[in-house]
Amino acid sequence: GAGVSQSPSNKVTEKGKDVELRCDPISGHTALYWYRQSLGQGLEFLIYFQGNSAPDKSGLPSDRFSAERTGGSVSTLTIQRTQQEDSAVYLCASSLLGRPNEKLFFGSGTQLSVL
Amino acid sequence: QKEVEQDPGPLSVPEGAIVSLNCTYSNSAFQYFMWYRQYSRKGPELLMYTYSSGNKEDGRFTAQVDKSSKYISLFIRDSQPSDSATYLCAMIVSGSARQLTFGSGTQLTVLP
User: B22, B63 in Cβ contact below 8 A?
Assistant: First the structure.
């Protein structure tokens, strides 16, 4: 595709349920990022994948959060036992090589609502 | 205290006005400075990028970086209703591809 694709665009779930969010980056981009954006807050870094290197998971807020990237392309962010404070927009971005001055291309995000 | 501070607004201006958006930061190691624009229900998109101190101009947009004051600005001249969006500053330490540090964003509305 032409851009970063995220699905679903909206997800409503009940507290305690698990959710999976999907990100399909731009073809050929080696770096993939997950961010979380809460109302009135900036983007909070969650996790970073670069090629075949071990992911940087330092931004994950708890062990309920995990992510994987299969075949260097599609990524899935999983939140187990969701809590109301997990409600936010989850944004995925990709860049060509993951260099500091590179442009990040963002998807439109998944709006997660935990009831 | 956050590493990057940005006035959330909202900021409302008439069409044609000059808009000034600002961020301050505390980490002197930041070397790359960006401005992202985010329309409602969309992901952010890169608007301007500068390295170290100085000015950069692109059409109606000018980005300024003052490293001595740890202060960056984005100016929008002849603002248009289509400029209505949230503007996020972002910055990164040289050599670190791990993450950008974002401001919380300033919501701008340009009234026709």
Answer: no
Q: How far is CA B9 from the centre of its chain?
A: 13
Residue of B94, B103, B96 whose CA lies nearest to B74: B103
Mutate to test the interface with A, among B99, B102, B104 (most CBs of A within 10 A): B99
The verdict on a CB contact (< 8 Å) between A101 and B103 is no
- Using CA atoms, how far apart are residues A67 and A57, in angstroms rounded to an integer? 9
Helix spans in chain A (H):
none
How far apart are alpha carbons A85 and A89 in whole angstroms?
12
Strand B4-6 vs strand B19-25: parallel, antiparallel, or unpaired? antiparallel
DSSP assigned state of B7: -
- Which of A43, A99, A103, A112 has the highest number of chain B CBs within 10 A, making it the mutation to test binding with B? A43
Q: How far is A3 from chain B (nearest CA, A)?
A: 11
A31 touching chain B per CB within 8 A? yes
Tens digits of pLDDT across chain B (112 residues): 788 999 888 999 999 999 999 999 999 989 889 999 999 999 999 999 888 888 999 999 999 999 999 999 999 999 999 999 999 999 988 766 567 889 999 999 999 9
